[in-house]
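User: I'm curious whether this sequence folds into something compact or stays loose and floppy. Could you predict its structure so I can see for myself?
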Amino acid sequence: MHDMKIPVRAQRRWYYRWAQPPVKAMFNLYFRHETKGVENLPQREGAVIATNHASVLDPPLVGVDLPRPVYYMAKQSLHDIPIFGSLIRAYHSFPVKRGGFDRGAMKKAVEILKKKNLLLMFPEGTRTRDGSVQDFKAGVGKIVLDAGVGVLPGYIDGTFEAWPPGKMLPRPRKTTVTFGKMINFDDLDMDNPDRKTYRKVAERIRSAVVNLKNSE
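Assistant: Here's the prediction. I'll summarize afterward.
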C-alpha cells in the first residue's frame, strides 16, 4: 500500500521525539556510535540521503542524530509483519516490492521529496554480503531527477561487523555515519533524462560515498 499521507516539510511527531534520545543513548553505549557531517544536512529543503547498506542497523543509525524526520523504503515483507509493520510505518517507512519496478513506491518517493522532506535510500538495492560498496541502481537517479532535488551522500562504517546479514544478534562494534557535502545535478538534462542520465547520477553518488569511505 502506498496511501500514506505526506505532509509538507514533516516535523518529528511526539513519539519520534520521545524515542530518539533513548535510542541514541543505546547506540552510543553499545556501538560507541558517532555521526559526522550533520551540518551538511539541508535545513528546510527536500533531499535524498544516499548511503551504502550493510545491516538492518543502517536506517535507525542514519536517522538517530538528525534533527529532521527521515522517510525510507522497506521491503513489503517487513510491512506485512504484525506490530513491526505498524511500528516502522509510524517512523516514516513505506513499502517497496522487491524483484521488479515498483511504480507506486517510486511515485511516493518523488512526492515525499517534492514536499520538501528527506528520503533515505540505499541505492545498492540490498545489503552487501562482503562489506564492499556495490554498484548503485539507476533508480536513485530517476527519483532524484524526477523530484529535482540534491543528494546528501553518507558512508556507514562498522555495521557490517556489528550485525551482518545472516547473524541473529548484533555484536558491540564501533559504528560511524559520515555525511559529505550536498551533490547537485544542475549540469545534467533535467527536462529529458534517459536511463543513461539516471545511471550517471547513480555513479556520481556512489563515487561520493566511496570517497567518504576512503577518507575514514
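Summary: The beta strands are 34-36, 47-51, 70-75, 93-96, 118-121, 150-157, 176-179. The chain is about 35% helix and 15% strand.
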